[in-house]
Amino acid sequence: MKKNIYLILTVIGFVLPYYFIFKFYTANEMSTTAALAQLTALDWGALLAADLTISVFAAWTFFYNEAKRLQMKYWWAYPLVTLMVGLSFALPLFLYFRERQLEQ
């Protein structure tokens, strides 16, 4: 059951952020650098960016240690997916495959 929830969250974690990214870029026609500058221009945006950065490093540490403990293959793919898509996709994806490993 948990495994299915993680899979659903993985799909949502991919679709939802990209929906907002697409919506933002079509409305503003900005570059990525301009979007990041706009994000950190306000203190709230900077707070969220700092919080997410710390969360990403904590997740990477968790990915490595847990994958090593459970002898999961391709542990390096999860930090890579975090950079390519985001933590909202990478974390539930990791948890899904972790549950599969625990079932075996």
Note down, in words, how this protein is organized.
This protein has 104 residues and is an all-alpha fold. It has one domain (2-103). 85% of the residues lie in helices and 0% in strands. The protein has five helices and no strands. The chain has helices at 2-28, 32-39, 43-70, 77-84, 87-103. Helix 4 (77-84) packs antiparallel against helix 5 (87-103). The mean pLDDT is 90.
Helix and strand arrangement:
Layout: H1 2-28, H2 32-39, H3 43-70, H4 77-84, H5 87-103
Primary descriptors:
mainly alpha; 85% helix; 104 residues
Q: What portion of residues belong to β-strands?
A: under 5%
The Rg value, from CA coordinates, equals 16 Å
Helical residues, percent: over 70%
What's the order of the H and E elements? HHHHH
Number of helices: 5
Query: Please, how many domains?
Result: 1
Q: Residue-averaged pLDDT, rounded?
A: 90
Please tally the β strands and state the result. 0
Termini separation (Å)? 15 Å
Assembly category: single chain
Biggest sheet architecture:
none
Low-confidence stretches: none
Gist?
It is elongated, with a radius of gyration of 16 Å. Helix 1 packs antiparallel against helix 5 (87-103).
